[in-house]
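User: Fold both of these, please.

Assistant: Here is the first one.
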Amino acid sequence: MLKGYEMALRTWSDWLEIHVNHSKTQIFWMSLSPTHERSEEWGGARKQNCYNETQIINKHDYWGSGSDTNMMRLVEATIDNIIKKGLNIQLINITQLSEYRKEGHPSIHRKQWEPLTKEQLSNPIGHADCIHWCLPGVPDTWNEILYAYIFNL
């Protein structure tokens, strides 16, 4: 998977170099949002997830198992190479930022592909949505960071 991602990033980088006006274009790369599916990673009980979490993760440099640090390093290296080629690009690392926010999920109250049954709704630990984010909350922070980059260039 890492090799395929590297190839995709190289193709994207080559396309940017050829098709983007270097003097007029500001590019932003936003990383992936993390998951919080294993509470034992932050000191919680085994076989639990983000459901009913109310506190952030305070462990410095915390990375959950759902985030691939090798992929993040690959993105950082690609962006460094793009900058060396003269393109104005900024990495917005929401992955690291959002890793700390295990309490910022909408739980069972998001729209599913199929509506949850009453039985599923009664078992939120088994059906909590610990991958997506709700508003207001974590995505508002992502937008504030992007806004700051845009208007402080």
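And the second sequence with its predicted structure:
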Amino acid sequence: MQLPPDEESRLTINIVPMIDVVFAVLAFFILSTLYLTRAEGLPVALPRATTAESQEATLTLTITAEGNLFLGQQPVTLEALSDEVQALIEPGQTAMVTVRADMATPHGQVVAAMDRIRDLDGVRLGIATQRP
């Protein structure tokens, strides 16, 4: 009596679903990175500095070339600046406020804004620059 030969089924690994998942994760990280770069604030031409260091900012104060002030994305006046910053900071916590001033902004406008913020307790100031 003869038995039929055993048909060995070949085992295969289908990597197409894995490639789909890898591309989906890659697309997520690319899109989230693009969003993070836009979240910094309004577009301004930052001054260049070779000694620039990266720091975590709690709040961002943007001063445009025309001298307009924006706390985050919201417009704010110089008179209301300290009250707005104080409202966004939790009591007893230290906050880092980064000033993103355009190169064409008058120096007096930047100093006046920084002077208003410096009077607040628990607030540290930083000036945003970009590397040359």
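DSSP finds three helices and five strands in the chain.
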